[in-house]
Amino acid sequence: MDFNKIRSFCRVFRIIAGIALIVTGYVTGIFWFYLGLLPLIAGIVNFCPLCIFSKKCDLPQNSES
């Protein structure tokens, strides 16, 4: 099982959510929103630590005989 594969919509969602949180933190001045770096980096690197535990982000394996 390859944990580096996540669905494309999850990757795009993580990048958008990370950017949105960072922009919100910059505009409001609340530093907690800078935790948006975590989903942003997870989306860019194409790795999600939660997928290891949930096993719901894996792409189906192609069974070639």
Q: Number of DSSP strands?
A: 0
Low-confidence stretches: none
What is the C-alpha radius of gyration, as a whole number of Å? 14 Å
Indicate the mean pLDDT: 77
Helix and strand pattern: HHH
Distance between the termini: 18 Å
Defining traits:
single chain, mainly alpha, 65 residues, 3 helices, 0% strand
What is the fold's blueprint, element by element?
Blueprint lengths: L7 H21 L8 H9 L3 H6 L11
Write up what this structure looks like.
This protein is mostly helical. The two termini are 18 Å apart. The model has no long low-confidence stretch (mean pLDDT 77). The protein has a domain of 44 residues. It is elongated and about 35 Å long.
Summarize this, please?
This protein has 65 residues and is mostly helical. The protein has helices at 8-28, 37-45, 49-54.
